[in-house]
């Protein structure tokens, strides 16, 4: 008989590990997960912390703190980005690693979850200093990383340039080129076509799937997108191409509004010519402080950062559908209020999993020594996203649960079933 598991009380809603665990606990309880398995799944398999001495350009020696947390390798090699940011801490890395386990399991790709981070400010470092830090971090993690063990990718503060150095450093140690050890690489080093827009594309696919269930017709629907970076801009463009009227977009410079719909391609062209910022964009009405989150539209896509929808503003949200492009945009204490208001939320671990799905395709292509066309990548990732949405939707009906809890149920069940089959000591 399965043990009853109390949801973990949230002491600090801004603590990402607690926020993740509170949802995990509710799903585990609905699933009737045995306490032993619950304990296995809540603890990371491996945590490696290192101190990395790096020579700076002025000749001084600085020591950086780095971490890699492998939350789970039950479904396959672990997968997850490496963050370079002054705010990196082990609690956050642990939460993000677990998040990756659930995300990969929801979209049914054969990966476990991991995350890495180095406490540093790459914006204040030269390219040479960043390169030495990437190489030092990779050298310290040689026993953790591997195309069949643990596969890093970019995250905040890292991108294709850092992945190229990581791949090179790992390859030097092996005495051969191992491009499948890292994803998010530049195209010439084995990166995948379609990776750049993949997360935004997955947001679009899951948004359309949810709209269909809510009987919303895309060509009659209105939408706002918070954040106009990689995820937000691509999601806005692809939704507008499907006929959705994107009335408002925003970035750190403020919000841009047009009641008749913003020309997203025009806004992207402007941003690309303006150091990735919408500042000064004049083909829409500018406001420094309009709050897009409470706009009177059908669909809200938060695609900027975590904890923007909270207990303080959940009451004012008018959208019927929220599609979480960002990671953790809704704080755990706002879940109940949103559910109560009848708003449908496509949760982050489902909505933004298009990126990791195409990372998986990058790894598959590297291992095959072959390159797929952009069309093939898009077709396969659309299918992965659509099938994942349907799986989660059916679980939510079966358990009368929100899509978020249903996504956790799908993920936890898959990892738990696999663990039981594989067995333990
Ligand atoms: P990005 O840096 O490319 O873009 C972030 C955007 O948000 C920028 O336009 C920035 O100006 C804007 N922004 C920041 N603070 C804001 C605020 N207070 N109000 C309005 N806009 C604000 O980042 P990204 O890669 O698009 O990632 C966005 C989110 O999606 C993050 O939570 C990230 O973890 C998540 N995510 C990204 C990917 C990916 O493949 N890039 C995959 C999964 C999840």
Protein model, in words:
The strands form two sheets. A seven-stranded mixed beta sheet has the order 9-8-7-6-10-11-12. It has a five-stranded mixed beta sheet with strand order 1-2-4-3-5. Among the domains are: 44-176, Leucine Dehydrogenase, chain A, domain 1 (Rossmann fold), CATH 3.40.50.10860; 198-351, 3-Layer(aba) Sandwich (Rossmann fold), CATH 3.40.50.720. The chain has helices spanning 16-31, 35-42, 90-106, 127-140, 160-174, 198-213, 230-241, 264-272, 335-340, 348-351, 354-368, 374-399, 403-422, and strands at 46-55, 61-72, 78-85, 112-119, 150-154, 222-226, 245-251, 254-257, 285-287, 299-302, 321-323, 344-346. It is of the alpha/beta class and 425 residues long. It is globular, with a radius of gyration of 21 Å. Mean pLDDT is 94; it is low at 1-7. 42% of the residues lie in helices and 17% in strands. The structure holds nicotinamide-adenine-dinucleotide. Nicotinamide-adenine-dinucleotide binds next to helix 7 and strand 7. Residues 199, 226-232, 250-252, 303-305, 325-327, 352, 355 line the site of nicotinamide-adenine-dinucleotide.
By DSSP, the count of extended strands is 12
Can you tell me the CATH class of the domain at 198-351?
A: Alpha Beta
Shape: globular
Give Rg in angstroms. 21 Å
Determine the number of helices (DSSP H or I, runs of at least 4 residues). 13
Can you name the CATH architecture of the domain at 198-351?
A: 3-Layer(aba) Sandwich
**Unreliable stretches:** 1-7
Report the portion of residues in β strands: 15-25%
Report how far apart the termini are.
22 Å
Strand line-up in the sheet with most strands: 9-8-7-6-10-11-12
Q: Helix coverage percent of residues?
A: 40-55%
Please give the largest β-sheet.
Answer: 7 strands, mixed
> What is the CATH topology descriptor of the domain at 198-351?
Rossmann fold
Q: From N to C, what is the helix and strand string?
A: HHEEEHEHEHHEHEEHEEEHEHHHH
Q: Which structural class should the secondary elements be placed in?
A: alpha/beta
């Amino acid at each position: 008989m399965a043990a009853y598991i109390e949801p973990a009380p949230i002491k600090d809603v801004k603590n990402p590990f607690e926020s993740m665990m509170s949802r995990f606990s509710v799903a585990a309880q609905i699933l009737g997960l045995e306490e032993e398995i619950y304990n296995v799944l809540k603890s990371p398999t491996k945590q490696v912390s290192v101190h990395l001495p790096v020579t700076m350009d002025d000749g001084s020696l600085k020591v950086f703190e780095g971490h890699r947390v492998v939350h789970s390798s039950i479904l396959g090699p672990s997968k997850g980005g490496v963050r370079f940011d002054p705010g990196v801490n082990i609690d956050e890395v642990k939460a993000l690693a677990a998040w990756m386990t659930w995300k990969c399991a929801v979209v049914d790709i054969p990966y476990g979850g991991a995350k890495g981070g180095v406490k540093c400010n790459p914006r204040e470092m030269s390219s040479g200093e960043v390169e030495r830090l990437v190489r030092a971090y990779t050298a310290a993690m040689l026993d953790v990383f591997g195309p069949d063990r643990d596969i890093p990718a970019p995250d905040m503060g890292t991108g294709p340039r850092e992945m190229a150095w990581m791949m090179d450093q790992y390859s030097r140690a092996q005495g051969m080129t191992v491009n499948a050890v890292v994803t998010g690489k530049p195209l010439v080093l084995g990166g995948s076509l379609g990776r750049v827009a993949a997360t935004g594309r997955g947001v679009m696919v899951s948004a359309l799937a949810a709209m269909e269930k809510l009987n919303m017709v895309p060509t009659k629907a209105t939408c706002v997108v918070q954040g106009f970076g990689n995820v937000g801009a691509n999601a806005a463009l692809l939704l507008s191409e499907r006929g959705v009227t994107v009335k408002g977009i925003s970035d750190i410079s403020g919000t841009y509004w047009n009641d008749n719909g913003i020309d997203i391609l025009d806004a992207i062209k402007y941003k690309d010519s303006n150091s990735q910022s919408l500042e000064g964009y004049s083909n829409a009405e500018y406001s420094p402080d309009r709050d897009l989150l409470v706009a009177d539209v059908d669909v809200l896509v938060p695609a900027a950062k975590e904890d923007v929808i909270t207990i303080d503003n959940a009451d004012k949200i008018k959208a019927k559908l929220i599609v979480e492009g960002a990671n953790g945009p809704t704080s755990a204490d706002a879940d109940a209020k949103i559910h109560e208001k009848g708003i449908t939320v496509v949760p982050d671990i489902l909505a933004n999993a298009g990126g990791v799905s195409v990372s998986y395709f990058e790894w598959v292509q590297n291992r095959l020594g072959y390159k797929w066309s952009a069309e093939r990548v898009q077709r396969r990732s659309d299918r992965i996203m659509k099938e994942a949405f349907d799986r989660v939707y059916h679980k939510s009906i079966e358990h009368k649960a929100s899509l978020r809890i249903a996504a956790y149920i799908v993920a936890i069940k898959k990892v738990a079933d696999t663990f039981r089959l594989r067995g333990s000591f």
